[in-house]
Write a structure and sequence with these properties.
The chain is about 45% helix and about 0% strand. It has three helices and no strands. The protein is elongated, with a radius of gyration of 14 Å.
Length: about 80
C-alpha cells in the first residue's frame, strides 16, 4: 500500500505474492498514484473546511471510503 495498512485496495501497488513491487511500481505511478493524491486532497479539503484542529491521517485514509462520516479525527 502506498501509505499504510487499511488504505482502500484500489490504491494498492501490487499483490506481492504475485508480482514484485519494482516491476509494478511504474504502472502504479501512472494509473493509481494520481487517484491516490486526489483522494488525499479530498481528505485535506474536508479537514480544512471543518472546525477541527487535528487531523489523524492514518484514520482518515483508512476510514474515508468506509463510512459516510467526515473522514477526520475528533479534536
Amino acid at each position: 500500500m502506498p501509505a499504510s495498512y487499511g488504505v482502500p485496495r484500489r490504491f494498492a501497488v501490487c499483490d506481492t505474492t504475485a508480482e514484485r513491487v519494482g516491476a509494478a511500481w511504474p504502472a502504479f505511478l501512472a494509473e493509481r498514484w494520481p487517484a491516490f493524491l486526489d483522494f488525499g486532497r479530498g481528505i485535506l479539503q474536508r479537514f480544512l473546511a471543518s472546525d477541527r484542529a487535528v487531523l489523524n491521517w492514518h484514520e482518515a485514509l483508512v476510514t474515508a471510503e468506509r463510512s459516510d462520516a467526515e473522514p477526520v479525527s475528533s479534536p
